[in-house]
Structures are given as C-alpha cells and as structure tokens.
C-alpha cells in the first residue's frame, strides 16, 4: 500500500489542472478506504508536481498525518506577473506548484481541516502539513470568536499579500482551518 499520492497520476474523476480540490478529496477518500485500522493509519503524502492547478471544490481534510506537498512556489503570487510589465523577463511562469483559487462550489473555502464531532468521541486531527506550494487568491488570519475563552490558546494573525478575507485556524476542539478567496469589495 503506497502512502504517496501524486495528483497528476491518481485516477481521479477530473484532471487536477481543472479541479485539484476534487482530486485531493478523492485521494483522501482512498486513504480512508485503504487505512481502516489503527495499525494501517500511517497517513499519507499528497504530492503536487510543478504546474498550474485550478481549485474549484473545497478540500476537506478529516484525517491525521497528511502532508500536502508541492515543488516550491515559483512566484509569491501570479499577481506579480499579472500586474507588472513582463517584456524584459526571461520566464513569466517559473516552476513551482501553483493553485489558483476559483471556488465555484459556493463555499469560498479552499482547505477545511475539520472532523465532525467532539475530539473525545472521534479523536483529534494531528499533523496536517501544507508545504512548498502557493495558493493564489487567499490570505491568512486567525478566526475570531464572539465569546472570549480565557483557557483557549491564542495565536497571532498572519496576512498574505491581499490582507483580505482569510485563511483561518481556531484552537477550539473542532480544529478548523479555512482558506478563503480575497474579497475586493473592501473590508
């Protein structure tokens, strides 16, 4: 049983270049189908080779020990290329694994790390890692809650290039992490 999945060679229902979110969800379903007991749950690596991928479907990660790994980011954002004169450049789309946020499923969330139920009954999600790729069209911050809980650990906000909307993670029991596209209508 392999624990390394390549989004370009996995036999998904669509091309990863068309909707990488759907392909990653199908890979996660395959991981859950293959790893059904405590001793067969080592997790997996989902590899995103260099290239451009559109994300139209929210990715739901509800398993532990998953690494979604690309091959570097190339640009910090395609906005650098799209908003600059490229006439003197040698490369306009240099290497890297690039995901363009296009959510058409109505959720406006790229990645959601969450398991339904209380951690005392369904367990916590541990060790989910995103590395070496870029998601264009999102920024990051901590999701705020109305009621202040003095026992909840607080983390600082992190903002991406747009500083709008958010990728959010809260430290409550549901371990939610969301990536949202920017809203250019203002704050």
UniProtKB/TrEMBL annotation:
Region (Disordered): 141-187
Biased composition (Basic residues): 141-155
Residue span, Rhamnogalacturonase A/B/Epimerase-like pectate lyase domain: 17-98
InterPro entries in UniProt: Pectin_lyas_fold, Pectin_lyase_fold/virulence, RHGA/B-epi-like_pectate_lyase
Segments of skewed composition (Basic and acidic residues): 162-178
Domain of life where this protein originates: Bacteria
Gene3D superfamilies (alphabetical): Single-stranded right-handed beta-helix, Pectin lyase-like
Name of the protein in question: Rhamnogalacturonase A/B/Epimerase-like pectate lyase domain-containing protein
Organism of provenance: Microbacterium saccharophilum
